[in-house]
Specification:
19% helix, 15 helices, 3 domains, 30 strands, eight-stranded mixed sheet, six-stranded mixed sheet, alpha+beta, globular
Length: 651
């Protein structure tokens, strides 16, 4: 880590001294503490540590904007022309887990008020080195600002994260179904995956960066032990990684040549070795890729593999396997070293300030766009994300940057609706993998549920999991075995209509819990049998501006990018709305199938009843069989007054 010793200009010297010192954790001041013009910032940055830090952070933020300046000179020219007032206050950490002891203060926030559009806001973070007076005093978090993810300090940090989690985090020893894993006694460790890579030996080069490893693919045959798993992007077909095939399976059992391994695999093997783990599981090498039966068998075990691994290494910043885990970092940001007054000067008596990571964390990484990573991240009890500019630790207890900052992460949300919404928004190369890529996760979740798993839905959550709709145009999936009532029958991002309708612009709601569908059953492993109110849709029309402002469409409008349709009665009155699964209105007659009656309002204000409906079209004319083409709401409850409950099948 490189650092600039503190040297402040006249303006920055007016920052209250206590902000930079031991009581900063108790200090929270949102007044304007600092004010200067942008040209002044440019002039003082070469000699003032804090101005330099702010300028670097502002430049990075401006260049990250879509229409912003693209070079340092353009940033300089822009800042010369603006009137810019800078405010400054201490930031409190809002993401500390309840059972983790950590300082509340993690840094500072600066806001700009000027003619810049949009206005710029930057955040700085404070941390102390491990064992320093600052971190031991609990004034600032303990952390490091690393120049590389491949340096000795980085590996020490990784070891520390893993050791702390193994010793202190009880939640991280549990699987999704609540089984406690033993990770210390060899005889009680999980069984190794059926096929796994063994790190046999290492040839030490001139430094730890030049290690060459001897590896082979072994059949575990019931052995127990520790392993790490790799989560990575395969990239386009021309850059697909080394694979195990029928032709090289026997050769890989003897030895996997080091030169043939792509950079991501080499880096992951090195990380495993440095953490003291002998085995690593990599999908392209541990599954015979041109053997369909082997692929089906091994892919169904991926839930077990990622959940029981002691750690998952996520190459989150790499778009394909050639890029590696140890990506080149931006060297323009240097930490500002601030004196830390103490009676007993421990390890330098200082702490550091650095711009917060601007990558947005794992949620905004390139790996997060990969559908297969969904179950890998949710099932993994511990992950180290190798980002473009930092390393991030994420376990069931906490998610933390290398500088000690705690951050939230969406990938740990394991409600099924949230999983499907996240998963459906990710990229999937092969449409036939739509359900297979969630099979391992569904298998583990099934151990915690009494109901059945039907084509991406849980039978106990019907009918609410039937009310999915497109976030944008959906493409019909060309897999004959996926029925239309499943979200997996379409390619593209979906969202679920909230079952209780709370939030999202809807009026206050109390659930009535009146389900019209009765007990759902599945016939011939395809046809969903339900009861409800069925009625022909007289007419559809694209929503008008007046209708768009109606509270009932507010939630859907905010997350749906396609057209909403009015459902019109025989008298051409608006009685509800719907979202179609495809942009084109079907040519066949459409029907509303009401499965749930709900209401908005409360006892004092009065209730307003409405129906949640599926939009269907006739399918097989024999046996009352229909096909789903959309979903929506009927808010004129009297429209179904003359309809009796009917049982139908949806294919």
């Amino acid at each position: 880590m490189t650092a600039n010793r503190t040297s402040l200009c006249e303006t920055c010297c007016r920052i209250p001294t206590r902000v930079f010192q031991s009581h900063a954790a108790l200090y929270d001041d949102r007044r304007k503490l600092l004010e200067f013009r942008a040209p002044d910032l440019l002039m003082s940055a070469p000699t003032c540590s804090f101005c330099s830090l702010v300028l670097n952070a502002v430049s990075a933020r401006l260049q990250a904007q879509n229409a912003g300046p693209k070079s340092s000179q353009e940033v300089h020219d822009l800042l010369q022309t603006v009137e810019w007032w800078q405010t400054f206050h201490v930031e409190q950490n809002q993401n500390i887990p309840k059972d983790v002891r950590s300082p509340k203060m993690t840094g500072f926030v600066t806001w700009t008020h000027s003619n810049l559009t949009p206005p710029v806001a930057i955040s700085l973070q404070a941390f102390g080195l491990p064992g320093s007076a600052a971190s031991l005093s609990a004034s600032v978090p303990e952390g490091l600002a690393l120049n590389s993810s491949d340096c000795k300090d980085a590996f020490q940090l990784s070891k520390g994260w893993l050791k702390t989690c193994l010793l202190e985090h009880k939640r991280c020893r549990q699987t999704l179904c609540g089984t406690n894993l033993s990770e210390t006694e060899q005889s009680e460790m999980p069984h190794l995956p059926s096929r796994i890579i063994q790190i046999c030996s290492v040839q030490q080069g001139e430094s730890h960066r030049r290690m060459i490893f001897n590896t082979s693919l072994v059949e575990s045959e019931g052995m127990r032990g520790r392993w790490v798993a790799l989560s990575h992007c395969w990239g386009p077909s021309r850059r697909h990684p080394l694979k195990t095939t029928k032709g090289n399976l026997h050769a890989h059992r003897d030895c996997i040549p080091w030169p043939s391994l792509p950079q991501t695999f080499r880096d992951a093997i090195k990380i495993a070795y440095m953490l003291g783990v002998e085995f690593i599981w990599i999908d392209s090498l541990c599954i015979v890729q041109d053997d369909l039966e082997d692929w089906k068998t091994e892919s169904s075990s991926m839930g077990y593999i990622y959940e029981n691994a002691i750690l998952t290494i996520a190459a989150s910043g790499a778009g394909d396997s050639t890029e590696g885990c140890f990506l080149n970092r931006d060297k323009t940001s240097q930490a500002m070293e601030v004196p830390f007054p103490t009676k007993e000067d421990a390890r330098g008596g200082s702490f550091f300030i650095l711009p917060k990571e601007t990558t947005g964390g794992p949620d905004s990484s390139v790996l997060n766009t990969r559908a297969w990573a969904t179950q890998e991240w949710i099932l993994s009890r511990r992950i180290i994300h190798y980002m473009r500019d930092s390393m991030i630790w994420s376990c069931k207890t906490l998610t933390q940057t290398e500088t000690g900052r705690f951050i939230p992460i969406r990938a740990r949300n394991n409600t099924w609706a949230a999983i499907v919404e996240e998963y459906s928004n990710r990229e999937l190369t092969l449409v036939q993998d739509k359900l297979i890529a969630l099979e391992g996760l569904a298998s583990e979740i099934s151990k915690t549920r009494p109901d059945k798993y039907w084509f991406g839905l849980w039978s106990g959550d019907i009918p609410d999991q039937l009310f999915w709709f497109a976030r944008s145009k959906l493409g019909k999936i060309h897999v004959a075995d996926v029925p239309s009532w499943s979200w997996a029958s379409r390619m593209g991002a979906v969202r679920f209509l909230p079952f209780d309708m709370e939030g999202g612009g809807w009026p206050r709601t109390k659930p009535l819990s009146r389900k019209l569908c009765g007990t759902s059953t599945l016939e011939d492993n395809r046809y969903l049998c339900l009861s409800g109110l069925l009625k022909v849709v007289p007419a559809l029309a694209k929503t008008t501006d007046q209708w768009s402002r109606n509270a009932f469409s507010t939630y859907t409008e905010r997350i749906y990018r396609g057209p909403l349709y009015d459902i019109r009665s025989e008298a051409e009155e608006g009685i509800g709305w719907c979202v179609l699964d495809a942009r084109e209105v079907p040519t066949k007659p459409l029907l509303c199938f009401a499965l749930v009656q709900d209401y908005v309002g409360d006892y004092d204000e009065g209730r307003f009843f409405f129906y949640k409906v599926l939009i269907l079209q006739a399918g097989d004319p024999i046996g009352d069989c229909y096909e789903r083409v959309g979903a929506g709401c009927i808010f004129t409850s009297s429209w179904f007054a003359d309809v009796e409950t009917k049982s139908i099948r949806i294919a």
